[in-house]
Amino acid sequence: MSRRLPRPSVVFTIIVLLCLYAPIVIVVLYSVNKDEALLHWEGFTWKWYSQAFHDDDVRKAFGVSIQVAILSTLISLVIAVTAGLWWRRASRRARRAVDGLTFSRIVLPEVVFALGLFVLFRKLDIALGVGAIVVGHVVFISAYATIIIQTRLATMNDTLEEAAADLGASPWRVFRRVTLPALAPAVAVAALLSMTFSFDDVIASQFLGGPNAQTLPVLVLGKIRLHLTPEVNAIGVGLMVITLLSFTIAGLIAMLRPTGAGSVLGLGRRAR
């Protein structure tokens, strides 16, 4: 009896998985390879991680990335929560307009608005740097945060808020004591995803950073243009670990608490 051959769908799936994960495995292996030329395997070492950790340029770029990620996330959360609360009470036509503007920031190629912001800042004589990068990141990551907050607000029952208002609580007190605690899981997920997207961004960071601000992904891009070294692979693995941790925590929060983040997690990374 002849053995049955694998179905075409199985073969295709295996090929796709290999194309997706084989490069990641190669980067991880090269990051612990003693061979500096990366021509063949010479043994295991943590040398390149130590070298990357003590590299002043890497430390400076990492600090810039963290600063940009925190600032852009905080601004994006304020925009998302404010827009979500307004969207909740808006008319159907206004909601459609806001949704269209929100999704257009996700669909629009990042290079387009990065170039547009670059030209605008040059015309207005605004210096490039951390502030410019933050503005560029807020443009798109606030869209993801807005979707999460809007989805959570759409599933929330406003009975408690109305009861608090009937008992004499001011609008600010209702928001602080009732609405915000209910939004907390969604805000946490939106913050994690926003920081991850900002930390990993290359295009807007490269256009708007100028000579005074260089994020870690931009530094990696510059290094591989000169020469591919095991240190670059070690930095790449570090970036990957940070991203995976953020997405894992966000996924756990989304599974344990209703946040509306499932749709955003399903979108994955933006197409660059």
Write a short abstract of this structure.
This protein is mostly helical and 272 residues long. It is built from twelve helices and no strands.
What would you say this structure looks like, in words?
With 272 residues, this protein is mainly alpha-helical. The protein is 77% helix and 0% strand. The chain is built from 12 helices and no strands. The chain has helices at 8-30, 47-53, 56-89, 92-107, 110-123, 130-155, 159-166, 171-200, 203-209, 216-226, 230-256, 262-267. Helix 2 (47-53) crosses helix 11, helix 3 (56-89) crosses helix 10 and helix 5 packs parallel to helix 9 (203-209). The longest helix has 34 residues, at 56-89. The N and C termini lie far apart (50 Å).
Low-confidence stretches: 260-272
Fraction in helix:
over 70%
Q: List how many beta strands DSSP finds.
A: 0
Mean pLDDT: 85
Order of helices and strands: HHHHHHHHHHHH
Main sheet characteristics: none
Question: What's the helix count?
Answer: 12
Strand content: under 5%
Shape: globular
Cα(first) to Cα(last) distance is 50 Å
How big is the Rg? 22 Å
Structural class by sheet pairing and helices: mainly alpha
**Multimeric status of the protein:** single chain
